[in-house]
Amino acid sequence: MSHDHDHDNELDPFAARVRALETILTQKGLIDPAAIDVIVDTYETKIGPRNGARVVAKAWSDPAYADWLRRDATAAIGSLSYTGRQGEHMQAVFDTEDTHNLVVCTLCSCYPWSVLGLPPVWYKAPPYRSRAVIDPRGVLEEFGLTLPAGRKIRVWDSTAELRYLVVPMRPKGTDGWSEEQLAGLVSRDAMIGTALAKEPA
Predict the structure, then answer these.
(1) Which of 42, 93, 94, 95 has the fewest CB atoms nearer than 10 Å to its CB?
(2) CA 42 from chain center: how many Å?
(3) Which residues have C-beta within 8 Å of that of residue 125, sequence separation ≥ 6?
(4) Rounded (10°) CA dihedral 109, 60, 78, 50
């Protein structure tokens, strides 16, 4: 399974129509594909993931907030003004030395836009959606993440009613770091569970 290119042959009918419309509008000179790419990249890698990274950093820094996030993630995340479409009902799941969490949507592509932005192409692809449940350890290894043999992997299936945010373990060597510094260690993939938080440089 590759994660670095679009799966054009696996587009659902809606996505295929969007692609066709974009092609026609581009050919007619009505839209600039580069501008569309910038907008998509902003939502995929900047706006959403930054929000989630701030939630994780606050949970790492503030035990009371972490406890609130465990009990009522929707309210805790909402307190930071990260609310809206696809993020109305949230649950935070915390990685530990014993358990690693991985999020998938086996039926479609339910995903918490308010904290992670737009879902990556691979999250919506049928191979990820099926294999994450059947062979999560193998899928993680394809992402370059090899976990200790004794660490359990728990797979969470997002739905239209409930979406998940993985809180990765805080890296060692970050005592005294500000929330802003900590947020810089948290990637979108770590909050889905296909990566760990980055180690401090």
Answers:
(1) 42
(2) 14
(3) 1, 7, 10
(4) -60
The neighbouring-strand residues paired with 154 are 101
* Structural domains of the chain, count: 1
> What's the pTM?
0.79
Q: Is residue 198 part of a domain?
A: no
The C-alpha torsion from 42 through 4 and 94 to 129, rounded to 10°, is 110
Which residue range is the domain that position 101 belongs to? 13-192
Q: Is residue 94 part of a domain?
A: yes
In sequence order, what DSSP letters do the residues of 24-39 get, joined into one string?
A: HHHHTTSS-HHHHHHH
| Residue environment code for 109-134, b if the CB has 16+ CB neighbours within 10 A, otherwise e | bbbbbbbbbbbbbbbbbeebbebbee
pLDDT of residue 3: 46
- 85-128: pLDDT as tens digits: 555 799 999 999 999 999 999 988 888 988 998 889 999 999 99
Residue 94: give its domain's CATH number. Answer: 3.90.330.10
Catalytic annotation, residues: 105, 108-110
In a domain, 2, yes or no: no
Sequence-ordered strand ranges (E) for 74-194: 90-94, 99-104, 152-157, 163-167
- Does position 184 have pLDDT exceeding 50, yes or no? yes
